[in-house]
Amino acid sequence: MNAVIDSQVLETGGIGGHPRGLNVLFFTELWERFSYYGMRAILVLFMVAPVVQGGLGFTVAHASEIYGIYTMCVYLTAIPGGFIADRMLGARKAILFGGIIIALGHFTMVLPALSAFYGGMLLIVLGTGLLKPNISTMVGRLYHLNDPRRDAGFSIFYMGINMGATLSPIVCGYLAQSEHFKTILTKVGLPAESSWHFGFAAAGVGMCIGLIHLLMQWKLLDKIGGKIEKEEVALHDIQDVESDTVEAKSTITVTEPVHDSVKDPMKAPVITPAKAPLFTPDELKKLGALLCLFVFNALFWSIYEQGGSSLNIFADRLTDNRLFGMEFPSSWFQSLQSTYVILLAPVFSWLWIKMGEKQPSSPGKFSLGLMFLGIGIAIMVPAAILTAQGKVSPIFLITVYFVETLGELCLSPVGLSTVTKLAPARLASLTMGGWFVSTAIGNRLAGYFSGFLQSDSSGSMSYMFGAMAIAALTAAGLLAGLTPFVKKLMGSVK
Ligand code: PHE
């Protein structure tokens, strides 16, 4: 194991001096997210579209509920997915099988039957559970705990996610919604209403490109793609202890023989995790801090995910979708958040590095994230009021998504990296699963909240978005107050 970790530390052949394994994970996740966000961009619109236009004719409330349940399940399966990777398949095979199941899911949705619609979503849910959490933990495994490239590695990975998420609504939205593609369909003798299913197919094609890329570079993940072994647990735990000198005192009886085992590998089997207490006091504190961040994370996504649901419908029904005289499909708005992430992520990385020691702690950044989210969604209040006079300018949504994304960048990549730092190594995947569960709860709530959208009542919409803004701003204030306390629980982790 020692050799494995050392070789990863020295590996600099990938993007920007990172291990080469990062390139593989970057592109695989880029294409998986392409498929996920492409389908998500048209999902609610497909469900609420009238049957004569090829949709399912659902009400906003029903469609929002399905959206919430689906996006919840997609992240909830991260728990069994992490477990299967750790104990049975190893992370690398888990992401391969996950990707295959996801692709099958998207292709199932090409069939124009309700059972295929639900069956396809079920497959995507199962596949994403195997792929998404494990690919994220594999990024963490590329680096030693104190490797200075670690956070930057996560930022690069997050860029990949968002490149996929930017591209796909354009492609899937064009196929599903545009008049241009519908004319092409009619010309070749296919019904124009089948356009939605071409959107779903494009998502599946994207996942296949990701799978091909993964298989071509399979070998590069040799060292980080296996199951969790006992020895690995012991070694990672040394890293944990070494990184926190104060806590090292309380666990000295455990660490001393482990240190011996590093000097003399023959002694390694002496330490088995079973003999150690379930959690050290330090671990418990860190888990407490994580739990607190999980709660605010759920709240964040419950509002942010209006993007794919109520704001998506707002874009479709109440926004004048023309820019410089050109009309565009409403689902193209779905590319905005991720475009902003790509543009702003380097600015944020630069900012945090420039601020150095003075940069906010992770709970501080979470609080800032919620503040931006609150300001962003507050802009929907005047937009909603103005719908009383007809369709509103796209500038509203363009601005809302911009401000919300400032929030996302303070919270989401920071959260991912903080989870991998605060989690006890032997529970890395499970804790990552916990992070996904909190995201899942947020997504479920988002669907519930979105169900309240009454697109024919500007008054009710302004209350709805106003209430969300107040909730986010209050949470931001609360977390700012709790930050010193959470920081204490986090010990040496910033
Ligand atoms: N944009 C992020 C992604 O797709 C949203 C997310 C964050 C999803 C955390 C799951 C967990 O990766």
Task: Write out the strand line-up for the largest beta sheet, numbering strands in chain order.
Answer: 1-2
Named once each, the bound ligands are: phenylalanine
CATH architecture: Up-down Bundle
Mind telling me the C-alpha Rg? Answer: 23 Å
Our count of helices gives 20
**Structural domain count:** 1
Instruction: Assign the structural class, choosing from mainly alpha, mainly beta, alpha/beta, alpha+beta, or little secondary structure.
Output: mainly alpha
Basic shape = globular
Distance between the termini: 27 Å
Mean pLDDT: 86
> Quick one: CATH class?
Mainly Alpha
What percent of the residues sit in helical stretches (DSSP H or I)? over 70%
Uncertain spans: 1-9, 230-272
The largest pleated sheet is described as: 2 strands, antiparallel
CATH H-level homologous superfamily name? MFS general substrate transporter like domains
The number of distinct β-strands equals 2
Any idea of the CATH topology? Growth Hormone, Chain: A
Structure description:
- This protein is an all-alpha fold and 494 residues long.
- The protein has a single domain, classed as Growth Hormone, Chain: A (Up-down Bundle).
- The chain is 73% helix and 1% strand.
- A two-stranded antiparallel sheet has the order 1-2.
- Helix 4 runs antiparallel to helix 19, helix 7 packs antiparallel against helix 9 and helix 17 packs antiparallel against helix 20.
- Phenylalanine binds next to helix 19.
List the helices and strands and how they pair.
Layout (H helix, E strand, L loop, with lengths): L1 H9 L10 H28 L11 H17 L1 H12 L1 H18 L5 H28 L8 H28 L1 H9 L7 H22 L13 H13 L2 H6 L1 H12 L17 H24 L5 H9 L3 E2 L2 E2 L8 H20 L6 H17 L1 H7 L8 H28 L5 H23 L7 H33 L4
Antiparallel strand pairs: 1-2
Helix pairs in contact: 2-3, 2-6, 2-7, 2-9, 3-6, 3-19, 4-5, 4-6, 4-19, 5-6, 5-9, 6-19, 7-8, 7-9, 7-15, 7-18, 10-12, 13-16, 13-18, 13-19, 13-20, 15-18, 16-18, 16-20, 17-20, 18-19
